[in-house]
């Protein structure tokens, strides 16, 4: 299995003719990770009692590869109708208590993230300082969309993570995936505006714009003056809707053709009045 949490898996028709034995063998032994995840995705859709039992048995194996695949299967089992949620949660929770293998632990936390249970927050937060960045990355995914105090505090902490993809996703979680507006969230996002990773900076920019925080204005003006304007900066301009940006956006019309409709939306949002909109 891959170290990262897959965001897309090639879709396999529901009438995939492979048996559960064949799918399990592919999931466990296939060296092509796309094909292995395709088999796991098919097992998710099967969602039968046999698949549950086989996955739980893998989770109790002495073999780390088998435990990892078992956790991967339990995470999304029963698509679109979820299967045996309580049993899956208990199995993954118990695994998390004792697991020492980093890749298995990453798979466990990632699987728990799909269950969307409040108890997952405390489990995931235990690993916020784990030495493996992929485990911390899984923690971020488990907390995205959660709004209790511990989840937010952990996302704020992980928005400062030394690993780029961890802090990028934590910043995205704080800025775009919840509706909360607190001083802690604003400060965490503002701290990322000048992040050395541009994607993280743009996530912070959009997040602050959603909150109406005018600290993004210097960053937006600097972006325009740089001569290289990202679509996220235009999105942020539309969200903050500041008339001071209107002349800059009008100038942008002359050469920026990345997303013309989005630019026009930003121009309308920042227009100081109908007669000055064009």
Automatic annotation (TrEMBL):
Q: Which residues cross the membrane?
A: none
Q: Does the keyword Lyase apply?
A: yes
Q: Does the keyword Amino-acid biosynthesis apply?
A: no
Q: Which Gene3D superfamilies match?
A: Leucine-rich Repeat Variant (1.25.10.10)
What Pfam family is a match, any one? HEAT_2
Q: Which domain of life is it from?
A: Bacteria
MF terms in GO: lyase activity
Supply the name of the protein: Putative lyase
Keyword vocabulary terms for this entry: Lyase
């Amino acid at each position: 299995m891959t170290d990262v949490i897959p965001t897309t898996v090639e879709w396999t028709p529901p009438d995939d003719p492979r048996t559960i034995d064949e799918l399990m063998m592919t999931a466990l032994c296939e060296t092509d990770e796309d094909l292995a995840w395709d088999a796991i995705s098919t097992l998710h859709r099967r969602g039968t009692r046999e698949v549950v039992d086989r996955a739980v048995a893998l989770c109790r194996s002495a073999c780390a590869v088998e435990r990892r695949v078992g956790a991967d299967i339990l995470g999304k089992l029963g698509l679109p109708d979820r299967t045996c949620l309580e049993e899956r949660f208990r199995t993954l929770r118990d695994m998390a208590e004792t697991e020492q293998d980093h890749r298995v632990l990453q798979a466990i936390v990632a699987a728990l993230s799909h269950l969307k249970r409040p108890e997952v927050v405390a489990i995931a937060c235990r690993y916020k300082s784990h030495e493996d960045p992929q485990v911390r990355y899984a923690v971020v995914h488990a907390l995205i969309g959660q709004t209790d105090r511990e989840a937010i505090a952990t996302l704020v902490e992980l928005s400062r993570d030394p690993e780029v993809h961890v802090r990028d996703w934590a910043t995205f979680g704080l800025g775009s995936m919840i509706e909360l507006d607190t001083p802690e969230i604003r400060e965490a996002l503002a701290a990322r505006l000048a992040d050395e990773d541009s994607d993280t900076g743009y996530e912070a920019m959009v997040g602050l714009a959603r909150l109406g925080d005018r600290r993004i204005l210097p960053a937006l003006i600097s972006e325009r003056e740089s001569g290289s304007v990202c679509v996220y900066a235009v999105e942020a301009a539309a969200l903050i809707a500041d008339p001071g940006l209107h002349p800059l956006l009008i100038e942008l019309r002359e050469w920026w053709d990345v997303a013309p409709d989005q630019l026009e939306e930003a121009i309308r949002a920042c227009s100081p009045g109908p007669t000055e909109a064009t």
